[in-house]
């Protein structure tokens, strides 16, 4: 018989309760919990090897979040009808958990750890990603895997002007902020999300509200751990250290590394110089070795690690003490900018954005409604009309690597750019009916290629004629702290990203923030420093925006001549069937005759039609055709008609697309006709007037003669010409 599970229940506001439970499922894992709210339930497990692999020099942490379709009573739509590789949404959720958990482990802990979080029961109104990191942290908390602190993670939205923790799906549709925030009891760890041009003060306020909610969740985890009786963490094998060797490395290379660091060199030259110093140092140590004091392979490996530690310390101290950066810039200075639009002849929009040694070539492609992206999760499937893909080929950093599919980094960077630019995209209800795909190919990279993607994407969208009202730019910031000193760095290099204590990316317009991605690696970051960093980021963002507006100040009035044309129409829903026709006959005929693509669907209780075509005249022809179908014939109106059939009693004509009526033989001409032979034939055009409808059948009655002047009557020859004649 299973032991009684251990539970902890807490309130997250508005009477909504979250339950954390351990001891019932997956008991052979080092740590296992379920987290549930409503019908939503997540299972999180953690397993860690007892010893590191031989030669291991880094911390191998794997985090995977997966949604089981059975959790929502659905069968996957794939060919095999089972869950396959992680979707982009699952990858992004995995990254959110990973980025929050990774700093919790000791720096010298090198044992492999695997954290798996699985959605096992879905609730249509509850977003599971907001609780996934809580589940992962709780699994670690009830295990003996060594972590330094307990964390948690929440989503915060602003609904009708009020902040709300973990709002429902329905509430998020009316929220103008969407941030996921991770923190320990004392410190923020990670922030990611989007907003509709919120201010820096709004973001800081949201962080404060979220942190209070996180503290409640951390307390619940601590109480659950105490109930389980976890009293300590396991011991682990630490990497060997040689302090004497460390001193030798610092003594030999410190001044040399400092000279290179302050040399204002380019990325590759600086890297080559550092490598040359390292090789010189190792050669010196090997030459000084003796049989009694050999320089072993293990010592060589440690010396390399100490050399990298030296680089880290020297560069940080230089920036903090001398306010000098690796490329010679001031702390707030942005690297040289260069940008162009319309750089490629065939894409529907293109831009080349270069900032220092980072470069993005971005294209925009305009497609039809048939090109929309299906985004499928356990809870629901929906289509997206805005797609952004980010590619990071190895040549962008001067490296040789295998070319495979996009990795988690590419998915994460592309998502941040997509969420930022999406804030300026036209609403689906607007006349802009295109599906838009933005592709950023990074050609060079030395610091924040994701922010280059945002800038290049904004430029390319305007070049394509997508009616975005404002430019969106982005900037990557860094922070270095030591004791009481700190330095906030604008537009960081790749090396500065590695050695910083906080790196964060902020995107936005002149009027507010559109996206944020932030990772904080130090304890006790004062909120005043955070505010200063956000203000410095705003100044850098505005600087880049000025250059973007000089390049292209507003979206082009029309799409490029070679881009597909689109017209969006809205009709009463009762006409949808008439436009489609029986078995799709009418809409297929329109597409065949005009060479256009026509998409029709019911949205908000009305018909929404999008017409796509390469030639403007073809789109106009299809538009007029549909207008004719949905037009309501008016008695007394005149129409251009085409004869469709001849009968002995009259001619059937089509006077509006899909609408026919009878011109009776008596309504063809003022002259009495016995037959229509030689008068009209099929295919003839004529103007007709709608004179009524048949009261029994409802069929339309039309007249041609009503538009022909009535001939004057001729006088009889024998008729008297004067009144007098009548008196004879």
TrEMBL record:
Region (Disordered): 708-728
Residues bound to Mg(2+): 497, 503
Metal-binding is among the record's keywords: yes
Biological process terms in GO annotation: mRNA catabolic process; RNA processing
Main location: cytoplasm
Reaction catalysis annotation: RNA(n+1) + phosphate = RNA(n) + a ribonucleoside 5'-diphosphate
Single GO term (MF): 3'-5'-RNA exonuclease activity
UniProt xrefs under HAMAP family: PNPase
Similarity remark: Belongs to the polyribonucleotide nucleotidyltransferase family.
Biological function: Involved in mRNA degradation. Catalyzes the phosphorolysis of single-stranded polyribonucleotides processively in the 3'- to 5'-direction.
Protein name stated in the entry: Polyribonucleotide nucleotidyltransferase
Gene behind this protein: pnp
